[in-house]
Each structure stands twice: as C-alpha cells, then as structure tokens.
C-alpha cells in the first residue's frame, strides 16, 4: 500500500493538473473574474502544485519526504493567507481561504501519520 503522503501527493498533482488545464474551475467558485491575467496566475500556482504533488508522491521516507511535506504545507498556508487578504470583504473569503489551508493540513497529517507508522 502506498504511503498516505504519496496518496496526498497524487491527489494534489491530479487536482492541480486539472485546474491547470481549466483555470475557470477554480476561479468561478472563488467568485473571481475569469480573465487572461487570472487564468495565468492560477496556472502558475497549479504548475507549482503539480511539482509539489509529484515530490510528495515520489519522495522516499525520511528527510526528503519531510522536506516535500514542509514545502507543500508552506505553499498552502501562504496561499490561504494571500487569499484571505485578496478576498477581504467577499462572501466566499473564509471558504476559499480555508480550502487552501485544508490541503496543507491534509498533507501535514499524512506526513505525520506516515512518520509514526514508519512508512
């Protein structure tokens, strides 16, 4: 059975790749305008997240996996904070910001559980 971190990484990479292809799938639920600029920004973030997801999915147990988890968590928490600021006053602010933070917490939890289980 693959590690929980590998599963979280695979989910991250798959979700990010899908949004990379169709940025409106993320922009519209966030209540953001779908423009050339917003699509470019989403694609930039999703490209980063595909790389981080692949790193999580393929990193061997130990130091490399811990670093991959740390990178993913840092990226997601930074995204959550940036979205909270950018969407100040918007109805969807909490949900959008929380969803970014939850991805990071899922990856962190997976990493911790894998470490404890010796995976």
UniProtKB/TrEMBL annotation:
Residues annotated as transmembrane: 95-113
Keyword annotations of the record: Membrane, Transmembrane, Transmembrane helix
Name of the protein in question: DUF4267 domain-containing protein
Species this chain originates from: Modestobacter muralis
């Amino acid at each position: 059975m693959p590690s929980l971190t590998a599963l979280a990484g695979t989910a991250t990479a798959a979700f990010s790749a899908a949004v990379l292809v169709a940025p409106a799938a993320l922009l519209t639920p966030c209540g953001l305008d779908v423009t050339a600029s917003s699509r470019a920004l989403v694609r930039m973030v999703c490209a980063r997240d595909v790389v981080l997801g692949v790193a999580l999915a393929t990193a061997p147990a130990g130091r490399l996996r811990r670093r991959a988890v740390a990178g993913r968590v840092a990226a997601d928490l930074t995204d959550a904070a940036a979205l909270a600021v950018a969407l100040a006053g918007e109805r969807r602010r909490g949900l959008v910001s929380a969803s970014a933070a939850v991805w990071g917490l899922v990856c962190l939890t997976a990493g911790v559980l894998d470490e404890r289980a010796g995976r």
